[in-house]
């Protein structure tokens, strides 16, 4: 496997854990790589310098992925990171090994659901603020870099 | 030469053909007729396929991942199966330019209804008011088509809007969410009814029990992915059975460009382009029946006139149902498990009484069962992990209402030709009725109120108004008319312009009720075939 392919598989494994699917199978990761090789993920509009930087940051680990994705959802929702995550989710939900992990309920009652949603929304809001602090300078640097 | 030559193999064409054959006529069917792929592992459920297929990704997402709905992509709340794309594949000689309208056409064996959701609702007398016949005339043909294809439904509160025809089979078993909705309706019924809102079982062309070589529904949850048991009816099933009949000839891979007529305006022949050899051939006809779908039929009709004398008439009155998709969550079912082995499409419906019976609003309710969820997860305004967590925990509580409004023929909505005679384009223009926006808002707020009474919540900003053309209920361009006039047909859908030409699809409808029209297309095609001899 060449270096780029192994980066993609490691990236897929990190993103799979971020999505709550645990460890993704080799075949799922190979599919993830195949989609990249077919050119369906990276488009010019979705792949600015900032998009690539965001993906690089997201590869650092699941917390970094969450932070980068939160920012991407607000400011780059059609960007490269979101495209990669959605692709991986589609791959994970269509194989029995991971389908249940991404699509079976985990809370038992409406009350637990409401409490947990409230907590998750607070986390989202906090990460959105942290993301502004972290990624706005990066954005400026990327914009400055591409202007040159 | 056959007694009758029919263009198309969709819902309209096959039921015309079947009735004509039953009346002793010989039939030639000329069709583009793209074949459908063979069903995959017909006994496995949607969930099982993810385990039993060697490469489930190829099946669910396509060889080039075309089934993945990327952010900002053109898609709605569900992923469309890649193996169904052949149904909408365009072909080179058919070209449409449109404004205010996103037209679809099908060149598949069986036509657009190879992708339909089976909703089968008879029109009532009020809705037939502008037609030159009433329910008494078409009723026996609803009975006949129901017997042929199998329709399930119930004589319940919605019967006030939809006549209960013969051969209506008992409905399928309900999924858990639909059961909860119907039980709740029992408790709030009076309040809802006082508001003109009624609720009950939808009607669908699906078999409960084995019949005529088709198998009864086994709750595989693959309806959107093409029912492998042939429980959910599609016209290709009728076509397959017609092909086995002695007086029937099926010529596929032929694109009909136009018909040729003589000085007495009698159709003599059709010109077909053989898509395998690219050769143009003529086929003599005795009686010609156009059933190629409203837009392709209109194009053949216009091209025939244009080629003969250079005229380019405008066919006014193009209609389609405006649809709004309203997602909802049932508050009591948040966090509940969902059952994957259930019928996937709508099992329930709302009927909203209009100010007049013709303004009835028709809304189909589909609870979410087996489905791809990434299109739903990506639509929430949150990071994907949080959206996914919410989606999986609300999956069993989610549903979608498809709200349909009626439409009327208006001069501003029309089709006509443009371009050079050898390469014409169909130009389709659609202008919504001046009252549409207000009607749509009123219907939406009534549906939201009704859902709330059923214990369901509509997330703000999530209702999606589908573009005109998306409902694919095109009609009205060459309408039935009680009086003889150019560019119209008579009560039997025989052209007022050409004595041996019949139109057997939606082009002839003078009014489009909110109810899905295909059951009426099939019944009407059978009705006119019974009178053609
Ligand atoms: C996703 C979806 C869901 C739907 N759900 C419902 C529903 O629940 N209920 C409902 O009532 N309706 C539904 N519909 C609408 C329904 O499918 C159509 O109303 C119906 O299929 C129209 O049938 P038709 O025979 O008139 O035309 P078509 O289905 O368009 O058939 C046209 C036929 O003509 C052939 N043809 C076209 N042009 C030429 C040519 N020039 N030469 C030779 N052959 C030609 C094609 O190959 C095809 O066989 C749905 C549609 C879609 C897309
Ligand atoms: S649930 Fe749908 S796919 Fe399964 S058998 Fe019934 S109609 Fe066919």
Q: Could you explain the architecture of this structure?
A:
The complex is a heterodimer of chains A (148) and B (533). Chain A has helices spanning 3-18, 26-37, 49-58, 62-75, 80-93, 96-103, 110-147. By secondary structure, chain A is mainly α. Chain A has one domain. In chain A, helix 1 packs across helix 4 and helix 4 (62-75) crosses helix 7 (110-147). Chain A is flat, with a radius of gyration of 16 Å. The model of chain A has no long low-confidence stretch (mean pLDDT 92). Helix content of chain B is 25%, strand content 19%. Chain B has eleven helices and 23 strands. Chain B has helices spanning 11-22, 46-52, 56-61, 135-149, 176-194, 235-243, 294-309, 374-377, 384-394, 436-453, 518-532; strands spanning 4-7, 27-30, 96-99, 151-152, 168-169, 197-201, 248-251, 254-261, 267-274, 280-284, 288-290, 315-316, 323-330, 348-352, 361-367, 398-404, 407-408, 414-418, 425-429, 456-457, 464-465, 501-503, 511-512. In chain B, strands 6, 13, 14, 15, 16, 20 and 21 form a seven-stranded antiparallel sheet that branches. A five-stranded parallel sheet of chain B has the order 7-2-1-11-22, with helices on one face. Chain B has a four-stranded mixed sheet with strand order 3-19-18-12. In chain B, strand 14 and strand 15 form a beta hairpin. In chain B, helix 1 (11-22) packs parallel to helix 6 (235-243). Iron/sulfur cluster (SF4) binds at residues 206, 217-223, 227, 229, 231-232, 343-344 of chain B.
Put the structure in a nutshell.
Helices cover about 75% and strands about 0% of the residues of chain A. In chain B, strands 6, 13, 14, 15, 16, 20 and 21 form a 7-stranded antiparallel beta sheet that branches. Bound molecules: flavin-adenine dinucleotide (FAD) and iron/sulfur cluster (SF4).
Give short descriptive properties of this protein.
heterodimer, A: 148 residues, mainly alpha, 7 helices, 76% helix, B: 533 residues, alpha/beta, FAD/NAD(P)-binding domain, 7-stranded antiparallel sheet, 5-stranded parallel sheet, 23 strands, globular, binds flavin-adenine dinucleotide, binds iron/sulfur cluster
């Amino acid at each position: 496997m060449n270096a780029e392919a192994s980066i993609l598989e490691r990236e897929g494994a990190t993103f799979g854990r971020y999505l709550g699917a645990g460890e993704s199978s080799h075949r799922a990761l190979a599919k993830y790589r195949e989609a990249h090789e077919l050119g369906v993920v990276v488009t010019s509009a979705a792949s600015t310098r900032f998009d690539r930087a965001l993906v690089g940051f997201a590869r650092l680990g699941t917390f970094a992925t969450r932070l980068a994705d939160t920012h991407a959802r607000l400011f780059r929702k059609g960007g490269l990171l979101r495209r990669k995550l959605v692709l991986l989710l589609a791959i994970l939900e269509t194989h029995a090994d991971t389908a249940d992990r991404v699509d079976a309920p985990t809370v038992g009652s409406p009350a637990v659901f409401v409490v947990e949603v409230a907590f998750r929304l607070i986390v989202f809001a906090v990460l959105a603020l942290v993301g502004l602090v972290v990624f706005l300078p990066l954005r400026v640097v990327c914009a400055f870099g591409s202007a040159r | 030469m056959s007694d009758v030559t029919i263009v198309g193999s969709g819902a309209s064409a096959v039921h015309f053909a079947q009735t004509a054959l039953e009346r002793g006529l010989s039939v030639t069917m000329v069709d583009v007729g793209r074949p459908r792929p063979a069903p995959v592992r017909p006994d496995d459920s949607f969930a099982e396929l993810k385990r039993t297929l060697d490469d489930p990704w190829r099946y669910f997402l396509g060889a080039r991942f075309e089934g993945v709905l990327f952010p900002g992509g053109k898609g709605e709340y569900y992923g469309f199966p890649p193996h169904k794309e052949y149904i909408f594949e365009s072909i080179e000689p058919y070209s449409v330019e449109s404004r205010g309208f996103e037209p679809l056409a099908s060149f598949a064996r069986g036509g657009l209804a190879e992708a339909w959701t089976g909703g089968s609702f008879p029109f009532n007398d009020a809705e037939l008011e502008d037609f030159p016949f009433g329910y008494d005339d078409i009723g026996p043909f609803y009975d006949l088509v129901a017997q042929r294809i199998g329709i399930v439904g119930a004589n319940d509160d919605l019967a006030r809007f939809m006549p209960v025809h013969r051969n209506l089979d008992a409905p399928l078993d309900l999924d858990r969410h639909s059961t909860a909705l119907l039980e709740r309706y029992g408790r709030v019924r009076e309040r809802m009814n006082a508001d003109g809102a009624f609720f009950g079982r939808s009607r669908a062309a699906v078999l409960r029990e084995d019949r005529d070589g088709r198998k009864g529904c086994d709750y595989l949850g693959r309806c959107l992915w093409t029912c492998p048991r042939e429980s959910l009816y599609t016209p290709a099933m009728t076509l397959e059975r017609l092909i086995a009949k002695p007086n029937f000839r099926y010529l596929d891979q032929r694109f009909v460009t136009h018909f040729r007529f003589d000085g007495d305006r009698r159709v003599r022949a059709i010109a077909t382009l053989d898509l395998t050899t690219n050769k143009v051939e003529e086929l003599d006809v005795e009686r010609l029946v156009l059933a190629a779908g409203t837009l392709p039929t209109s194009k053949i009709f216009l091209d025939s006139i244009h080629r003969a004398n250079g005229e380019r008439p405008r066919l006014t009155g193009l209609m389609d149902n405006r649809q709004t998709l309203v997602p909802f969550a049932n508050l009591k079912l948040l966090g509940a498990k969902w059952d994957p082995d259930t019928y996937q499409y709508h099992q329930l419906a709302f009927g909203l009484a209009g100010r007049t019976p013709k303004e009835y609003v028709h809304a189909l309710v589909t609870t979410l069962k087996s489905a791809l969820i990434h299109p739903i997860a990506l639509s929430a305004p949150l990071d994907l992990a949080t959206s996914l967590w919410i989606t999986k925990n609300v999956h069993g509580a989610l549903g979608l209402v498809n709200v349909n409004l009626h439409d009327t023929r208006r001069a501003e909505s029309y089709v006509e030709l443009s371009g050079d005679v050898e390469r014409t384009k169909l130009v389709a223009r659609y202008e919504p009725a001046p009252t549409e926006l207000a009607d749509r808002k009123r219907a939406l707020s009534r549906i939201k109120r009704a859902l709330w009474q059923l214990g369901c919540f509509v997330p703000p900003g999530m209702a999606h108004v589908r573009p005109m053309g998306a409902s694919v209920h095109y009609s009205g361009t060459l309408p039935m008319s009680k009086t003889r006039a150019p560019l119209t047909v008579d009560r039997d859908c025989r052209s007022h312009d050409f004595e041996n030409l019949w139109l057997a699809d939606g082009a002839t409808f003078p009014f489009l009720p909110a109810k899905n029209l295909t059951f009426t297309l099939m019944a009407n095609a059978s009705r006119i075939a019974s009178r053609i001899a």
